[in-house]
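sorry for the late reply, my laptop died twice this morning and i had to redo everyting from scratch. anyway the thing you sent over, i finally got around to it. pasting the sequence first so we're on the same page, its 1187 residues, then the predicted structure underneath. double check i copied it right bc i was rushing
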Amino acid sequence: TLKNKVLQGKFYAPQNKTIYLTAQSGGKIFFSAKIKAKQGVNFFNFDTHKEKIGIAQITLFDEQKQPRAERLVFLNPDKKLKINIKTDKAQYLPREKVNVNIQTTDENNLPVAANLSLAAVNEQILNIADDKQDDMLSWLLLGTELKGKIDEPNFYFNPKEKKAIAALDFLMLTQGWRKFSWKNAQREKQYVKYVPEKNTTISGTIYHLNGMIAKKAQVVLFETGKNNKAAIAYTDENGKFLFLRTNPSTPMQMMVKLHKDNARCQIVLDKQEQYLTYQHANNYDNYKYDNVMENESRVLSFNGTTNVKPKKTLQKDNKNDVISLQEETNQLSEAVVVINNFDQVKKSSQSVTIVNKDILNGSLEQNLQGRIEGISVIAGKSIATNDFKIRGMQGFGANALPIYIVDGVEVDAFYFSNLNVENIDFIEILKNASATAMYGGRAANGVIVVSNKKTLQNKNEPLLQPVNPYTSLLISNKNQNSVREFYLPKYDKLSKNENRNDFRSTVFWQGDINTDEKGQANVSFYNSDEITTFKLTAEGFGKGLIGHEETSYFTLKPLQVDIEIPPFLTVEDTLQIPVYLRNNVNEVMKANLQIKSTSPYLLLPSVDNQNIALQPNEKRTILLSVIAKGAAKNQLINISFVNEFFNDNVTQSIDIQQKGFPVEYSFSGSEKENTFDFELPQYLEGSLEGKVVVYTDITKDLISAVEGIIREPYGCFEQVSSSTYPNILALQLMNETGKIKPDVKKTALTYIANGYKKLAAYEISSGGFDWFGKAPAHEALSAFGLVEFLDMQKVYDGVDKKMIERTKKWLLSRKDGKGGFLNSKQDGHEVGNLPIQTKNAFIVYALARAKVKDIQFEYETTFKQALQSEDAYQMALLASASLDLDKVSNANILLEKLRTQLNNISKMKVQNTWTHSGGVSKQIEAVSFTGVSLIRNKEKDIRQLSEIVQYLNKNRSYGMFGSTQGTVTALQYITDYIKLTKANNQNSGQIELWNGKELLASSSIDAEKIEVVELTNWVSKLKVGKHQLKIKFKNTEKALPFSIQLKYNSYIPNSQQECAIDLKTDLNLKKVKVNETVRLTTTITNKKNEPQPMTLAYVGIPSGLIVQAWQLKELQEKKVFDFYELRQNYVVFYYRSLKEKESKVIHLDLTAKIPGTFLAPAGAAYLYYTKELKDWEGGQKVVIEKP
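ok and here's the structure:
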């Protein structure tokens, strides 16, 4: 127990013996004692008031110094960084400026400097977020110390929770319990490459060019970014200098002037290997990469605090080659030097003429004397030593000279005289009050300010071009990434008729707010248009303390209008939209209400200048009747509430979906003349859509596949991978052909960068990747990820090579010793019920692609199995692996068998694929992998390779080749085929679309000008019945990739009997009132007597009902389903697999929010990798009445 910071404990000893007791926290022992224990209960106590907040480990050792018992105790929970957040008001207007003051103190309420992050977020969004996750305080003090999941970790540090301290001790007794298995876990000495909170120090040594140490040299360091902070230090007797609390992510300029010496010098940084440095060389205009004295002793990298005199001396330990900081020496005095903002200088009323770039020519003195009023030049011994004087300044002595400021840094007359005139942006003269106000009393003789054109942002060159007596060094940290700046709009006064369209959920975020030595910092930002409560959250570090604090403020308009509209409706939905009018002041307000919509698909009454009077602080609700008449996207409703002094204006968008069951047709081909027969049944009026798409450039064709993929759910690793892969292939193709299209490249790199970030998040800490990022990892999925990352790093330099190596290592660790690999288990059965031989073949293929050699046994085993099975998919994978492992004869054996099967290309023998694909996807994957292996072989049959392309094009639907995995493998082959044949389309001519003998549409094709040709506005000519569509290419050498796309909604579900999954939904109430709850029950059943792989179910939600986000999270945690997505009016449920005849039942409690009659869109269930077979379920209908 802890009483008054004294830890009191007891232990039981079975006999009299010597016991050793230790207490450690953060890896540091702070108490130890040798205890002469007596038989029975023994007591001990020790003081903990000097220790920091955190978990302490109390361990008892026996006489042999072996651990016998241990207890965890949480010490000093009060020793937190106290953060006080104050806004200048509690209530604001939308778009009004918010001023925030932050005060940081220690546990004794003494001010401390701290580094904080601050976020201002809509509280409604935070309420939806997971309240069981860590914040910085709980993660660092608990999450990193204790194993296992901690439920609601923030509870233990909430000052409002009276039981938090007691609960924290119980937590130490439960999740802090451990048994002993002590080993020499660290056999080799380990070195921490980057020590926390120490890479903010820049230190080093200044040398004369002859190698002698430079004492008392002036060292100036300033940031080159927008913060404009600077500091000055002087070297000690050993030539050492030290800057504390720098910003490691900002490039910095260092300038050194020797004491009583105008010669140049050499700057040597400690931890030289951590930085990219560019030091000014002897030649005035040249800079060289400086990598001198790499083996010098190291310490570590500035904030704006300057060390004028050394506070600690740096002493070298020759044995360990490190530098230690000694405390016994002089105290440091501190100062802050701020680089002034030139915008403020320009606005000064007492400044003199700015010399612009079109005026400047000749020497500097020629531009100043005679051109700028009040400047005279005092001749020196040479032109390079001229001084300048501002006439009218009453300084003492003949040489009362001004201060020279160049790019914010004070320089001497010698430096100033030698500035490069061509590089000057402006020159400005400050005198009288404007000079002393900005630069203090030393500016009594005026200030000459020069700003150069060149800035240092994102440039590896010094800001100044130093000449004697300064030596300049640009310092940039190799291991820091630039942080994207958070978007912060600035608003002036909100105009009377301005529309509210800024609904950002996060209105402010900054991760590097520094409070000063008084613990003070001030920030400001502007609100969005949202009328809500914003939560301010600050957390960070200071003086070894950790802190977290929250506060709130809210936004209101004097006169306010809001509407509550579902973002999605179904055709024929009828609803009464609540329009909320509010008077937020203490007087009667009269205003005119206007309600407008230009949409032909929304039927609603028009309200024009209806005068309404609201009593003080009155809230009134008006119900607006709306009917959805037709399917369309982005239909707008505008509502304004305006009077002479105040106004509020809201515009909301609605997407209207077609009712019924969606049906899609897609036809593709590769001939110059193609014929397709189909029958158009009775369809819902207004639902028929169609177009023909022709791609004249294959790179555009590749990226268009992404559009098809992202139309499908993509919540798992493989699906995110598949949406990224086409962009990788497009970039590879452009690099191969040399035809770089900047717009395509930019789009592709954006997709890749975003995709990579998502994919990396699926990595399991113990190794490998999982479908949803939860242990255990999946072997075949990890192998697929490995292949993608290998291809990705060829075109994107952001791939972590260490992650690739970790994945290789983990896959090798999964060898089973029998020539195969172990199986991951989820919930007691294999993930996806994947056949072992197929999985092993794919892993060997991936490791061979990665040039891993230690798989000979596994290769030989899977090769024999593939050969024996004659499975086309396995043989294609092993043929590729054989080529990678230089087993050419084995590859030829497999390829010969594959060539034979290609004679009946649509019926190749395929048992399964690694994703357990079915239907057309399974065939596409086998054919594509076969084609890739054939292209890689020396002997190539172009005719057969062309037939593979034709087969793939014929099986393309809405940009996709079957499933996501089928699409990726098909595009891989097509890309390799184009590289081989150089057939990158680029044909011109004409395309025609015929229906029998009727020409429906036509267009010319100019490959040099148009990359995508679309034929539209022809579906209205199609009648219900049979049709024969023809695509004809004229005046072209060959056909171009094309796709005919048709879709409509039908009254009858287009379900397939072969679908292995059955979907049923039911609402327990068909009529409810606003704010009441209705239960939606979803049943997903495996109809087959065998397990099924990845299964999805789209479940439609009626627009007037709201899904409870917390309930979905809770159900996922209870493993009612494996994953879920919210997509428009659907909840999409994922299952890794279903057992034979297994049924899954999901109960969702939906809240009625908007009165009206609503029909949910039709739902469907299917195997993700056999998406052409679906089971459709009609949407549920509900009537919601006013309360």
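The radius of gyration is 36 Å.
thats about all i looked at so far, will dig more tmrw
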